[in-house]
Amino acid sequence: MLGNGNVPEKQSRRIFFAAFPNKMTQKKLTRKAEEIQAMCGGRVIKAHHIHLTLLFLGDTNMDRIDTLLETMKKISVKRFELELNKISYWKHNQIVFAGASHYPDELFVLVESLKNSLTEAGFLFDNRNYKPHITLIRKAFRPIDNQPMKPVLWSIDQWHLVQSKSGPEGVDYISLAHWPLK
Question: Fewer beta carbons within 10 Å, N or C terminal of the chain?
Answer without folding.
Answer: N
